[in-house]
Amino acid sequence: xxxxxxxxxxxIFITLQVAWLSIVVIWLVWYIRNNAMRADQPxxxxxIVIIVEVSILFLLILAGIYxxxxxxxxxxxxxxxxxxxxxSITHAFKTPLATMQLYLETIDKRELPDTTxxxxxxxxxxxxxRLKSLVDNFLASARFSYSHRPYVFSRVSLASFIIxxxxxxxxxxxxxxxxxxxxxxxxxxxxxxxxSLVFSNLxxxxxxxxxxxxxxxxxxxxxxxxxxxxxxxxGIGIPKEGYRDVFKMFQRLPEAMALWGSGTGMxxxxxxxxxxxxxxxxxxxxxxxxxxTSFLIRLPVVK
Length: 303
What we know:
The protein is an alpha+beta fold. It folds into two domains: 7-80; 154-300, Heat Shock Protein 90, CATH 3.30.565. Helix content is 57%, strand content 15%. The strands form two sheets. Strands 2-4-5-7-6 form a five-stranded mixed sheet.
């Protein structure tokens, strides 16, 4: 998809500004010289009033041009975001749908042994899980566009929530070496569905961006009035200069795009917004043993 270029509009804006300023200066010089030649007298009060009024008029015109330029730039940014959104969602949905269709056609048109059918069905379930995750992310991001957050908070044990998440996502984690270490078991107030989406997004990132070691460490503890959950993987990692950008919507680093091209750039944005809506925050840092990436979530403990 062709990118929208910004530089022609900048040149047009600068040209218009220079042109208007030149007209103002030329008019002022002409008026002063013409008035002085006709009257052979110094500039009077009415002359000053006329000069000030015309100058204000030209300044207002310049301000109007500037406002129109800013609005145009915002519209251009919105159009670029929409184009990126359409491209991302199309590509993200196309891959699992095409894979599921291929599996279904294979089962329908060929006589396959039961073991092969089971493998294909598991593959379709995996692709269906990917589709569900994509839909959940899009719905969650749409929720952030509204002022209210219709979360259903409940009091849960952090250890039990982690155990239930691992149990409910066995298909997602079937090939992942998940190691948990819960030092303390505080109670937290969360929306179970939203926080499960946070956990699954972080785990999926670890899966997609790991080359050799498919392992995720989940560690939890309590310090004072805060509960901490750290997800650590052993993947390609994130450069330090990219820490600030990874939580932006549709933001994907070049290294991530080279390794896995089907991402939408929404996962970590959704993670940050959900954690923020729960009164917490999330930070990114180098992984354990300087391998991969660690995401540290901080949530308030129920008093």
